[in-house]
Amino acid sequence: REASMKEHGGPEGMDPDGVIESNWNEIVDNFDDMNLKESLLRGIYAYGFEKPSAIQQRAIIPCIKGYDVIAQAQSGTGKTATFAISILQQLEIEFKETQALVLAPTRELAQQIQKVILALGDYMGATCHACIGGTNVRNEMQKLQAEAPHIVVGTPGRVFDMLNRRYLCKYYSLLVYSFNDFFFSKIL
């Protein structure tokens, strides 16, 4: 990870000076000034972040404050970490139920998002499960029921199936769609 760090202090492809259009005026250019949980900050710095990217500077705070946010940016600008940090900040770790649902267009992206969430939330004790097709449905139901992960990241088909079976509909209050233009062109 350290080999891919750029001079601005973030992972490769994360330009903190990227062009952003926003109706949110507050820009926070330091993770320490975002009033994040100490355990989350430890996870952020352990992951290799030093300074928030442009999208993170503008979108984390409104997400945490409960606003509906649409964040569009090129690949590699920090969108996944933006919503992961926002979700992790709002989790009630003591509450052992699924509190957030993230939808991703592919199994691979769902698993990638899960890894980011687990890494950033490592010091918090946050749990995250990838609910994806191609896995055993019965095992999926048992895992969701027995473990009740704080966050579920999944593909639409499997998540829809688990919702219909009533394994994912009790307590979550956060919903994130992590889709790209290609996905939307397929469903339109």
UniProtKB/TrEMBL annotation:
Its EC number is 3.6.4.13. Gene3D superfamilies: P-loop containing nucleotide triphosphate hydrolases. It catalyses: ATP + H2O = ADP + phosphate + H(+). The keyword Transit peptide does not apply. A motif (Q motif) lies at residues 29-57. It is an enzyme of class 3 (hydrolase). It comes from the Eukaryota. Residues 29-57 form the DEAD-box RNA helicase Q domain. InterPro entries: DEAD/DEAH_box_helicase_dom, Helicase_ATP-bd, P-loop_NTPase, RNA_helicase_DEAD_Q_motif. Pfam families: DEAD (PF00270). Residues 60-188 form the Helicase ATP-binding domain. One of its GO terms (molecular function) is hydrolase activity. Transmembrane segments: none annotated. RNA helicase. Belongs to the DEAD box helicase family. PANTHER family: RNA HELICASE. The Q motif is unique to and characteristic of the DEAD box family of RNA helicases and controls ATP binding and hydrolysis. This is ATP-dependent RNA helicase. It comes from Sus scrofa. The gene is EIF4A2.
